[in-house]
Amino acid sequence: MAVESVEFNGICYAEIIWADTKVEQTTFYSPAESSFQFGLLAHKAGFVEAPHYHKPFTRTIDDLQQMFVVQRGVVAVELFADNGDQLREIVLRQGDAIVLIHGIHAIRVIEDMQCVSVKQGPFLGMENDKVFVGNNQ
């Protein structure tokens, strides 16, 4: 497998980087204009990147994307269209990663899991972070 895009009606809902994906050189999968950049870093032994920092730049972000990287266990990520119809269930295992780009999502833990979760900040508190949809709250 490799990187997989989950699209519906021309909208990208998620990108999956399967654990067995290999690249020879650093490869980013998100569009350059995306507010959340993700990809795989790859360098040959001996590569050295000079000390550096990233230039401050004011960015306006009006979407919130989230990335999970499964460290252990098994988790199902369910993706839903804007109207609430389920689009797909994706089962992730150790080393798999998913970027949730658009739409409604839910998780179901199949085996005790631990994931690295990354999303844009700042965190505005639970009351401002999530909008629950449907009857499964």
List keywords for this structure.
single chain, 137 residues, mainly beta, Jelly Rolls, six-stranded antiparallel sheet, two-stranded antiparallel sheet, 1 helix, 8 strands
Report on this structure.
This protein is an all-beta fold and 137 residues long. It has one domain (3-45, 64-121): Jelly Rolls (Sandwich). The protein is 3% helix and 43% strand. The chain has 1 helix and 8 strands, in the order E-E-E-E-E-E-E-E-H. Strands 1, 2, 5, 6, 7 and 8 form a 6-stranded antiparallel β-sheet that branches. Strands 3-4 form a two-stranded antiparallel ribbon. It is globular. The mean pLDDT is 89.
- Seen as an oligomer or otherwise, the chain set is single chain
First and last CA, distance: 34 Å
Low-confidence stretches: none
Name the beta content range. Answer: 35-45%
Total count of strands: 8
Structural class comes to mainly beta
Helix content: under 10%
CATH topology: Jelly Rolls
Mean pLDDT: 89
| Radius of gyration (Å) | 16 Å
Q: H/E order of the elements?
A: EEEEEEEEH
Largest sheet, strands/sense/barrel = 6 strands, antiparallel
Number of helices: 1
How many distinct domains? 1
Outline, from the CA principal axes?
globular
Top-tier CATH class: Mainly Beta
CATH architectural name: Sandwich
Task: Briefly say what this structure is.
By secondary structure, this protein is mainly β.
Question: Which secondary structure elements does this structure contain, and how are they paired or packed?
Answer:
Blueprint: E1 3-8, E2 11-17, E3 27-28, E4 39-40, E5 66-80, E6 86-92, E7 97-100, E8 104-119, H1 126-129
